[in-house]
TrEMBL record, chains A, B:
<dbReference type="InterPro" id="IPR036250">
    <property type="entry name" value="AcylCo_DH-like_C"/>
</dbReference>
<dbReference type="InterPro" id="IPR009100">
    <property type="entry name" value="AcylCoA_DH/oxidase_NM_dom_sf"/>
</dbReference>
<dbReference type="InterPro" id="IPR052166">
    <property type="entry name" value="Diverse_Acyl-CoA_DH"/>
</dbReference>
<dbReference type="GO" id="GO:0016627">
    <property type="term" value="F:oxidoreductase activity, acting on the CH-CH group of donors"/>
</dbReference>
<keyword id="KW-0285">Flavoprotein</keyword>
<dbReference type="InterPro" id="IPR006091">
    <property type="entry name" value="Acyl-CoA_Oxase/DH_mid-dom"/>
</dbReference>
<dbReference type="Pfam" id="PF00441">
    <property type="entry name" value="Acyl-CoA_dh_1"/>
</dbReference>
<feature type="domain" description="Acyl-CoA dehydrogenase/oxidase N-terminal">
    <location>
        <begin position="35"/>
        <end position="155"/>
    </location>
</feature>
<dbReference type="GO" id="GO:0050660">
    <property type="term" value="F:flavin adenine dinucleotide binding"/>
</dbReference>
<comment type="function">
    <text>Involved in the assimilation of dimethylsulphoniopropionate (DMSP), an important compound in the fixation of carbon in marine phytoplankton, by mediating the conversion of 3-(methylthio)propanoyl-CoA (MMPA-CoA) to 3-(methylthio)acryloyl-CoA (MTA-CoA).</text>
</comment>
<dbReference type="InterPro" id="IPR025878">
    <property type="entry name" value="Acyl-CoA_dh-like_C_dom"/>
</dbReference>
<feature type="domain" description="Acyl-CoA dehydrogenase/oxidase C-terminal">
    <location>
        <begin position="281"/>
        <end position="444"/>
    </location>
</feature>
<comment type="similarity">
    <text>Belongs to the acyl-CoA dehydrogenase family.</text>
</comment>
<feature type="domain" description="Acyl-CoA oxidase/dehydrogenase middle">
    <location>
        <begin position="161"/>
        <end position="269"/>
    </location>
</feature>
<dbReference type="Pfam" id="PF02770">
    <property type="entry name" value="Acyl-CoA_dh_M"/>
</dbReference>
<keyword id="KW-0274">FAD</keyword>
<keyword id="KW-0560">Oxidoreductase</keyword>
């Protein structure tokens, strides 16, 4: 049975040493002293370690079952969901007006990492509800909000997002689901949606579907899509549940992973729906909450890596095999623990240095989102929009890769179901696909975000890196972090320059390099995070911190990232600079 | 249902345009004109496409079942195995003295790729038998050979390899299985083995287990291991089957993939065994056939990539979504096929350029093995020994990565079981682990093979690359292949130099870079293969080949590899040159 221990100590390091949140000038952050965050994280840790993590394998093995239109979740899920609800974990960052606790999104992010590591398939039920909550909160009328949000905040009612149809996923302009206006102001929704996570299940008394559909007079393409609330059960004016709506689950998808989450075919047969926001503006409504949703998927990616790493590490310390070539380390045993071997170290350090960098990057992004929303800071909003595809694409690619590395640490045991590593690999795999495939993320980055507001945000990013490097370059102990970061950042700028110079002539010169650019950008971001964490660690050591070993370990891990991961930027740049010629050379028929 | 089309055309290109096998001075090769190889490949293709590939999903979904000590294989496997036997596919490269066809190993390799692509789990039953055949053929007495080999050549009897025990896999010096000599010259074998592929099943009338065990007077460690034949059913002198031996399957492993293959716990309870070769020389016996076994696993790795790619390509041509930014390609449809998009191309070209390079490299390696065995060529033997860990480690890592890329091409469909891509990912994953994890391959490469015979073989490799570059550098059209190859080869030499200069002082400086070195080496090998394939294609075009498009596509694919894959060598070198410091900095307790 795999283990999970919530990394509360490292989270507190990120929150307080790195981000210094209680000093940040963001409404609500002043209450986040380290005692408060520690108390929250420890409570969440208990639930994750004792209740959710043990159900992860159960969910995988048992899966979900559709019986007479009802989806039965794996044994134990419903009880656990009740505990999550009772603990108030569903409402952390929700609006107090609707019963939420009004905590910063950053706190929900830290807790979210634990929930995702412990049981990603389970946590999706809550995650999807939160996504639907956000969309309704941002775009629906006060009346709809008052009717639906309070019970979604508590997760008494679940929520879903219905975008994909069999013939269209990425290209939503092609959707066929129809919404026909009725005399009473409601709409009749008819169509088929696929891959609807948590579309039907037995853990909530109602499910509020958000459905993209087209009005009869809708313009062609994405500019003709509207967003509707379609409840599973109609909600009476007094809040009680009424009739069953014509929104039903037509089947469950068999998938590689996240078996504990019900991936549904949803059929809408003239179901009653309510328009959210303006007609034809459904895509905009979706997009405004996409930053948070995509950040949440990036988090899932590295969170799977994080739990996989813990299990790989435990194995590497326990399993004895072979001897340290530089001298026996375990003379009383038949062999040395495999953690003595350099290639096992290389593997573990790749995992560790990525995960800790990813955590810092994600928390930093969550803080930017808080700044954007709570301070109404347009620059923070622009920066986090720019980096959202990097967080989603890079962290899920590398998060998946990390689960594969962790699996490899266990050798043959990693391939067996018994040890659980292979489940982390299978579960992590979806994060590279949903909420926009990583290829789409890279197009969003290069095709939209780079040039947004005249390139203002990418320039701000470079300025931020540059001023950090300038400020820190001569500080004792920082050169070994600042110099590689400078080099990597230079590669990123050169790649951007290549796109500017060659993308005008032929956009394919930019698009052919978009994926490499996303990874290049990701490495620079993690390099920056590691340099900042080094700075924070040096400060703590200079201030004679009680836990010297923690900070020295942090510095050593950062040095590894700089030495062994950051050199990837050169290869990404080299690939980008070859342009579209070799990528597009073949006719489709010649493949 | 996934598709599979055997790549006979590309195989013939490798055999005849690239390797020019019928002109090669290797006994048996003179008979391999293109009509002969075409006939063999086409027959194999029929079986693979029509019989084995359709059973791949069945095997995955149904798996193997242990009932009263007997393993039931998935429905259809036994019939298919009969067809494989009847077609003579099990005996291609076996010794005619024992009923084999005596064909070169190269031919068995080409056919093996198809079998592995079509149904890897199924083909392992035959593959393991062939491995056991090889060990017995190379090391057992004439009497044992006469008794066991003829029926193993036909696969009427299966074969297995029993190395791993619960407490030891990589470090076989720790094995506990005992062999006690009996008065009649036999041995009583007692112990538990795990992860025994094809250890028990219902497709053969007998199973011949090869078991590593220790004699009572055995020296400690790997120098005290002996190899035994332990038949499932005793074999009488007239060849008929006698009593059941005390070799039983105690359980089946639940695994991430290759469900169609039975991975058995094997219990030997005083089972009767026969010594193969000399006492205490069991590891040597294993090692002599390891080159072929590991080459076979490298082949499995890229073969899974190959079939996954075919399915990704078909999807990319068929699925319409979005429009080509440089101009609509499918004006009559609602959108363009996704193959028009540069990032989809990038993905497909990564797959295609790897697979074709890997095929060439593996076939070339098989030819080297034939040269080593059939010409008794020590240099060829040394070279293939050097490159075996590269073939195994690099091709399985990249093969797995290719299945993941192919899965990504399908977006959400790639994650569903229906489309079958996720099975290729799960099946390919084992190739990075078994037959020595890829970490172990990299240690074998850097710790043993580089310095073997005074570094003679690695020098021969560099000479081969160098003289090719010198000879071809000025030939028209070759510079774009030769120049990147030169640069990559220089990186490889620099890495080797780093090991020499820093590995003496501290072996961890070399071992910390072993994995990167294996990949660096792999890229140089594939770069060399692409340069050679470019040369062959230019020749064919100059000779006015009828199929111009094929050769031009080959050149374009090679250019892609040079531009987009080979730049990885710089990053691998940079990582290697940082040495052991950052890798080994942490105490085990500080992780």
């Amino acid at each position: 049975m795999p283990i999970y221990q919530a990394p509360t100590k490292d989270m507190n390091f990120v929150l307080h040493d790195l981000l210094k949140i209680s000093e940040a000038d963001i409404p609500g952050y002043d209450e986040l002293d380290s005692d408060t965050t520690q108390a929250i994280l420890e409570e969440a840790a208990k639930l994750c370690e004792n209740v959710l993590a043990p159900l992860n394998k159960v969910g995988d093995e048992e899966g979900c079952h559709l019986e007479n239109g009802v989806v039965r979740t794996p044994a134990g899920f419903k009880d656990a969901f009740d505990q999550v609800r009772e603990g108030g974990w569903t409402s952390l960052d929700c609006d107090p007006e609707y019963g939420g606790q009004g905590l910063p999104y950053l706190i929900a992010t830290a807790v979210g990492e634990m929930f995702s590591s412990a049981n990603m398939a389970f946590n999706m039920y809550q995650g999807l509800t939160h996504g639907a909550y956000n969309a309704i909160h941002a775009h629906a009328s006060d009346e709809l909000k008052a009717k639906y949000l309070p019970k979604m905040v508590t997760c008494e009612w679940g929520g879903t997002m219905n975008l994909t149809e069999p013939h269209c996923g990425t290209d939503l302009g092609l959707i066929r689901t129809k919404a026909v206006p009725q005399d009473d102001g409601t709409y009749k929704i008819t169509g088929n949606k696929i891959w609807i996570s948590a579309g039907e299940h037995d853990m909530c008394e109602n499910i509020i579907h958000l459905v993209l559909a087209k009005l009869p007079d809708a313009p062609e393409g994405v500019k003709g899509i509207s967003l509707f609330i379609v409840p599973k059960f109609m909600v009476n004016d007094d809040g009680s549940l009424g009739e069953r709506n014509a929104a039903t689950c037509g089947g469950l998808e068999k998938k590689m992973g996240i078996h504990g989450n019900a991936t549904c075919v949803m059929n809408y047969d003239g179901a009653t729906g309510y328009l959210v926001g303006e007609p034809h503006k459904g895509m905009r409504a979706m997009f405004t909450m996409m930053n948070e949703a995509r950040l949440g998927v990036g988090l899932q990616g590295y969170a799977q890596g994080a739990v996989a790493y813990q299990n790989a590490l435990a194995f590497a310390k326990d399993r004895v095999q072979g001897r340290d070539v530089t001298g026996v380390k375990n003379p009383d045993g038949p062999a040395d623990p495999i953690i003595v071997h350099p290639d096992v170290r290389r593997n573990l350090m790749d995992q560790k240095s990525f995960i800790e960098g990813a955590r810092a990057f994600t928390f930093w992004g969550a803080q930017m989102l808080d700044r954007a929303h709570r301070n109404n800071d347009k620059d923070a909003d622009g920066l986090v929009s720019l980096l959202t595809p990097v967080i989603k694409g890079f962290l899920t690619d590398k998060g998946f890769e990390t689960t594969v590395l962790a699996q490899q640490t266990l050798g043959g045991s990693g391939f067996t179901q018994e040890w659980g590593l292979e489940q982390f690999v299978r579960d992590a795999r979806i994060t590279m696909i949903y909420e926009g495939t990583n290829g789409i993320q890279s197009l969003d980055l290069v095709g939209r975000k780079l040039g947004q507001d005249g390139g203002k945000h990418v320039m701000a990013f470079f300025d931020m890196v540059k001023s950090f490097c300038k400020e820190q370059g001569d500080v004792e102990g920082m050169a070994e972090f600042v110099e590689p970061l400078k080099a990597a950042s230079k590669d990123l700028q050169a790649a951007g320059m290549y796109f500017m110079q060659h993308g005008m002539k032929n956009p394919n010169n930019a698009l052919s390099g978009s994926y490499d650019f996303m990874h290049l950008f990701g490495h620079v971001c993690l390099g920056m995070m590691w340099a900042k964490m080094a700075r924070a660690s040096l400060d703590a050591l200079a201030a004679d911190a009680s836990d010297k070993e923690f900070y020295e370990t942090k510095l050593a891990t950062g040095r590894y990232y700089m030495a062994r991961q950051l050199p990837m930027t050169a290869t990404h740049l080299a690939r980008i600079q070859t342009g579209a010629d070799t990528v597009m050379a073949l006719d489709a028929a010649s493949f």
